[in-house]
Amino acid sequence: MNAPVGRLEDSLTLPQPYLLFLGDTTNAAYAKTAFGLADWAGDRCTGEWAIDGCTVSTGLPRLSPADARAAGARSLVIGVANQGGVIGAAWVAVLVEAMEAGLDIVSGLHTKLTSVAALVEAARRTGQRLIDIRTPPPSIAVGTGRKRTGKRLLTVGTDCALGKKYTALALHRAFVGRGLDADFRATGQTGIMIAGGGMPMDAVVSDFEAGAAEMLSPDAPTGHWDVIEGQGSIFNPAYAPVSLGLLHGSQPDVFVVCHDPTRSVVLGMESFALPSVEEVIDMTIRLGSRTNPAIRCGGISFNTSSYDADAAEAVMAAERERLGLPVADPIRGGAAFDALVESILA
């Protein structure tokens, strides 16, 4: 099916391959754009680059902008998704260097590239482009709450940056692998870069969040699935409004709760304890039933990247027993993930 808001390739062809820029990031959770592109669009990534102080790596070759351009890269993508979506002052010199090496700059941050005078001047001087993709379409209506045809799945989270996008991408791939008619609906900067289109939900004015989600997942044939990438968490003190608007507007028939079992506090807000999986299930049903009374939880997606295989299976098995629901790590796959897919489709 065609994306309802126009895919990026229809209105803007992103210059590829990419050089992924990690800035001075020390927390892998804040480099989720770089990791997402390396994991799901690795064939379109030439390498990575960073500045002093960075302790994070995607595992791609370290290439300077000049070396990356010589290797075929056409743009530098800011792979950082920090709090507030700001362009670090220490990054500007490297971004200018990249343009001087012949690379366009692509960003999904809230701070626009075009708002930084040094970048605008470098773009004018070099002829390279500054491409801000976190820009919603101009004509979003308010939500209507009208029930739409087709089926919808939404990934929700106990927190930010713990696997909602990866889970949605893995489930979409599984659905397509089973011969189902399905679309991945991107709602964040990385997902949009991977999919080539979508809705940057956290750049939408609050009154239009639900309408934007309706626009992203329109009426569809009865057997069609929209697999919608979740954003934030309805328990997050900063980002709950985006999560709630997406929940009401997407009207999911099924949701999957995404959780990192090693995390006990909200990322970047350590004074707030993480909600339990049960709390998220209960609140998602209570709030989501406002626009879809038949909403249900299909299971749990665990991010077990910090565990070895045996430890991961042990923690997931314990949660399956405790919750009475399928629990799987979509990246590990296997029988547990197949059971999660079966529960969603049941």
UniProtKB/TrEMBL annotation:
It comes from the Bacteria. Residues 142-335 form the D-glutamate N-acetyltransferase-like C-terminal domain. Residues 47-136 form the D-glutamate N-acetyltransferase-like N-terminal domain. InterPro entries: DgcN-like, DgcN-like_C, DgcN-like_N, P-loop_NTPase. This is EBNA-1 nuclear protein. It comes from Sphingopyxis fribergensis.
